[in-house]
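Tokens as discussed.
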């Protein structure tokens, strides 16, 4: 019987999944279905001739066409039937947050109406088609894919995604962000008494750092232009491509231009504040290091929804540290792409007497090496700290918390004792680090993921509006250039499927 695969086709991620599916179709006989996030992309997937889709669905139309009040009885029934929490799922959508609410403030009825429409469509589709697998990006990138993921999970449908291991170009195909396969392998290796142990140190992580990949990825160039030219392009994009998805609700040309102008003004103001008040040198003090995450960020809001208030976390850490230590909080360089944080947030950090705000250009590895303890929510600095033999405390879920060197905060009132134990009773285990690294080596694939995504984002933003035929030609060049990468990814998916 032919296996059915649902492919999530969401903007630049969609082109990645499309490329993987093309190569996958050469390896085995599958039946493909597509969920498309943008109307403009429907033309692309309808006109391409490399992959045959049994069905293609532009899913936003199902909530765009619904203007009625939400059926709370239906939502309550589905919550009980599938074991879901719709408000928890909805909280993952950054567009509903105040800091991302650019053009419209969503009411509870509007949010629940969107949830109802999407749930009805996804649930009915999965019930009718019964796909064995879903190929999508990391869940939580938007409300729709996170909702589909949760519904699919409740129906025992496997959702496969590429999850970074926090090492350069290293990914594991997993059905969740916790990468359970690594934890399982870690335990197997740990229990093997005959297993070889390798030595790891700072030089390894410096060579395999994810930072260089992300830095290149974030430095996407769309061509040089003055502010007025950029505003003009932005205005034209609205005229030629008024994508009617919910995060554009309330958008007008005037609002768009005003928002863009205000964003530029805020960026300069916040940048100036950081240059003036954030420390650029590390004082010779005993300190605990807290690297700020990029916010709003999909992984945190979807997978760690109760740990997104960084000010509250910083305040709780500051209350919990010994009197002879300081807490150093460093801004993330990637936060610039999110227009930095508000100056009010920075002022609250600076106001804490035993806390120091560090400039984003301060070297992260130097911070880790000089620190006595690294505390974070769920970013890569925790894994990096292990190579510097530093204790780690995490608030969120990370795959490397299986080692004894990483403690996870279970209750906030336990934080002071956890910090004390980490500072004064910590024992580094190279064996465990070696086992963790071997579990990664056994399960990961090495591909130029960030380079590919960077090209797809550039093409999606600059070429798609020129017409589908021209866009197909340009995208084919990327597929041809990275043919080996797509072949590796497809083979990894096939092994699981």
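Sequence:
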């Amino acid at each position: 019987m032919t296996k059915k695969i649902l492919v999530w086709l969401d903007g630049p991620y969609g082109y990645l999944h499309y490329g993987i599916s093309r190569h996958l179709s050469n390896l085995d006989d599958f039946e493909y279905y597509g969920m498309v996030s943008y109307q403009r992309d429907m033309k692309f997937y309808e006109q391409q001739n490399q992959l045959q889709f049994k069905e293609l669905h532009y899913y936003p139309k199902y909530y765009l066409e619904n203007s009625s009040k939400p059926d709370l009885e239906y939502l309550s029934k589905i919550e009980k039937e599938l074991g879901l929490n719709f408000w928890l799922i909805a909280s993952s959508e950054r567009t509903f947050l105040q800091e991302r609410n650019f053009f419209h403030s969503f009411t509870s009825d509007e949010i629940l109406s969107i949830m109802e429409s999407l749930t009805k469509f996804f649930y009915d589709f999965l019930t009718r088609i019964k796909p064995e697998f879903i190929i999508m990006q990391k869940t939580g990138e938007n409300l729709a894919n996170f909702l589909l993921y949760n519904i699919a999970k409740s129906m025992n449908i496997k959702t496969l995604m590429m999850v970074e291991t926090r090492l350069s170009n290293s990914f594991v195909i997993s059905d969740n962000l916790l990468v359970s396969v690594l934890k399982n392998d870690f335990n197997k290796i740990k229990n093997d008494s005959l297993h070889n142990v390798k030595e790891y140190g700072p030089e390894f992580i410096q060579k395999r750092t994810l930072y260089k990949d992300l830095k290149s990825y974030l430095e996407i160039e769309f061509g040089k232009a003055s502010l007025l030219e950029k505003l003009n392009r932005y205005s034209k994009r609205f005229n030629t491509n008024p994508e009617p998805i919910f995060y554009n609700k309330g958008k007008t040309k005037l609002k768009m231009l005003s928002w863009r102008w205000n964003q530029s003004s805020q960026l300069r103001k916040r940048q100036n504040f950081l240059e003036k008040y954030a420390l650029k040198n590390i004082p010779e003090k005993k300190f605990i290091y807290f690297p700020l995450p990029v916010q709003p960020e999909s992984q945190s809001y979807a997978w760690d929804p109760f740990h997104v208030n960084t000010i509250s976390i910083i305040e709780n850490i500051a209350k919990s540290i010994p009197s002879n230590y300081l807490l150093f909080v460093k801004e993330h360089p990637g936060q610039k792409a999110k227009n930095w944080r508000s100056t009010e947030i920075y002022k609250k950090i600076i106001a804490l007497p035993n806390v120091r705000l560090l400039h984003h250009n301060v070297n992260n590895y130097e911070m880790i090496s000089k620190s006595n303890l690294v505390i974070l929510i769920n970013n890569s600095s925790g894994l990096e700290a292990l190579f510097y033999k530093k204790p780690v405390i995490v608030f969120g879920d990370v795959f490397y918390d299986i080692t004894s060197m990483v403690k996870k905060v279970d209750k906030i009132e336990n934080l002071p004792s956890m910090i004390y134990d980490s500072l004064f009773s910590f024992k580094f285990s190279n064996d465990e680090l070696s086992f963790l690294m071997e579990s990664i080596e056994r399960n990961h694939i090495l591909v130029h993921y960030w380079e590919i995504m960077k090209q797809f984002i550039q093409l999606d933003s600059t070429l798609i509006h020129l017409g589908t035929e021209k866009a197909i030609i340009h995208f084919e060049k990327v597929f041809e250039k990275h043919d080996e990468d797509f072949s590796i990814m497809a083979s990894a998916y096939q092994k699981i499927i």
